[in-house]
């Protein structure tokens, strides 16, 4: 199977950002995930779109009254049937590297057989820049050498080179209410004082972007003409360091940060993380509800020191993104997390 498939010309079915009389069906792959759910909610609340929420195994949010489809997005035949009679696709699929690559390959193949071509909005990641340092814009080389995830996301962007209707969004650290890692786990670690001021290990840039800003970028990418094949970095234009992020989020949570020594970090990375990860896996197999402490994974500590900063002027200029202020986003995240923990304790 070829790595890239020509997807034709997407100009026949796109419109500007004015209301249209007929709502267009938009297929959302990975609709059960964090970003996917928010995209479905945005589309359902609009006056121009009807989301078709697609998931494989994870149940979809029954509170959202939209059309749902259960299928394996790695199967071209299933996707080819799903993309018929839709006006666009949003690819929010996550998972392991095999799933990311296989589902994207199937999507591009299925869409290559549909005319006129569909606008495909692909949720990529800042990790396609890999171990690059300094300030990077969308013309920077896609190295994808950080880990298997970054390599898989880079592979997908390369596969899409001949698919002229794809728009790539490269978000940084997507935080906000219900963000499982960047607002949930980080918040719990701060409240447990397992994270704090990491010293020189926390001076890397934390390229935060609020989930609402990502969803707005998806909306614009679906609707704007003349952006076929383009990519957009999504992050706060002046990102904090990880140390500053931890300090400001801790303040929103009503706690403080303390210095975390290198010895403590080494303990978290090499002594505590392996058994906690094993306990996390075991907890999913137990017949009762039990959640062990979240392991702090080595990749997070590595990321905290990484000096990569994304240039986001293109997203501001073309997509018109006005970024959610960090303090506002952190307050929203803190309210959500504290309410969730209170509900779990009752």
Tell me what the structure shows.
- With 346 residues, the chain is an alpha/beta fold.
- The chain has a single domain, classed as 3-Layer(aba) Sandwich (Rossmann fold), CATH 3.40.50.
- It contains 11 helices and 11 strands.
- The strands form 3 sheets. It has a 7-stranded parallel beta sheet with strand order 3-2-1-4-5-7-10.
- Helix 3 links the parallel strand 4 and strand 5.
- Helix 2 packs across helix 3, helix 3 (97-112) packs parallel to helix 4 (148-159) and helix 5 (180-191) crosses helix 11.
- It starts with 23 loop residues before the first strand and ends with a helix.
List keywords for this structure.
two-stranded parallel sheet; alpha/beta; disordered N terminus; seven-stranded parallel beta sheet
CATH homologous superfamily placement: NAD(P)-binding Rossmann-like Domain
Structural class: alpha/beta
Poorly predicted regions are 1-6, 8-20
Number of helices: 11
The CATH topology name reads Rossmann fold
Show the helix and strand layout.
Elements lengths: L23 E6 L4 H12 L3 E7 L11 E4 L5 H8 L4 E4 L5 H16 L6 E5 L10 E3 L11 H12 L6 E6 L1 E3 L4 H12 L16 E3 H13 L7 E4 L7 H11 L9 H22 L14 H7 L3 E3 L2 H7 L6 H20 L1
Parallel strand pairs: 1-2, 1-4, 2-3, 4-5, 5-7, 6-11, 7-10, 8-9
Helix pairs in contact: 1-6, 2-3, 3-4, 5-11
Task: Summarize the entry for a quick read.
With 346 residues, this protein is of the alpha/beta class.
């Amino acid at each position: 199977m070829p790595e890239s498939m020509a997807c034709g010309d997407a100009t026949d079915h796109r419109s500007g950002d004015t209301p249209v009389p007929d709502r267009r069906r938009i297929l959302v792959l990975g609709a059960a995930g964090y970003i996917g759910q928010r995209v479905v909610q945005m589309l359902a609340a609009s006056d121009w779109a009807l989301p078709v929420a697609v998931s494989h195994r994870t149940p979809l949010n029954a509170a959202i009254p939209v059309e749902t489809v259960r299928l394996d997005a790695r199967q071209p035949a299933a996707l080819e049937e799903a993309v018929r009679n839709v006006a666009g696709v949003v690819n929010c699929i996550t998972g392991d590297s095999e799933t990311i690559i296989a589902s994207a390959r199937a999507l591009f193949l299925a869409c290559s057989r549909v005319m006129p071509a569909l606008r495909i909005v692909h949720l990529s990641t800042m990790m396609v820049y890999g171990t690059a340092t300094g300030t990077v814009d969308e013309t920077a080389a896609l190295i994808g050498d950080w880990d298997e995830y970054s390599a898989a996301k880079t592979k997908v962007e390369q596969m899409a080179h001949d698919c002229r209707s794809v728009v790539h969004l490269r978000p940084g650290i997507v935080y906000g209410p219900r963000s499982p890692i960047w607002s949930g786990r980080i918040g719990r670690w701060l409240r447990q004082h397992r994270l704090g001021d990491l010293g020189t290990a926390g001076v890397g840039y934390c390229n935060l972007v609020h989930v609402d800003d990502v969803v707005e970028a998806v909306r614009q990418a679906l609707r704007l003409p003349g952006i076929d094949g383009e990519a957009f970095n999504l992050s706060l234009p002046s990102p904090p360091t990880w140390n500053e992020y931890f300090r400001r989020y801790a303040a929103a949570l009503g706690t403080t940060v303390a210095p975390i020594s290198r010895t403590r970090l080494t303990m978290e990375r090499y002594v505590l993380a392996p058994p906690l990860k094993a306990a996390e896996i075991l907890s999913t197999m137990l017949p009762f509800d039990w959640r062990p402490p979240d392991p702090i994974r080595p990749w997070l500590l590595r990321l905290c020191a990484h000096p990569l900063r994304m240039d986001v002027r293109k997203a501001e200029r073309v997509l018109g993104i006005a970024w959610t202020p960090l303090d506002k986003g952190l307050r929203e995240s803190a309210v959500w997390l504290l309410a969730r923990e209170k509900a779990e304790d009752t």
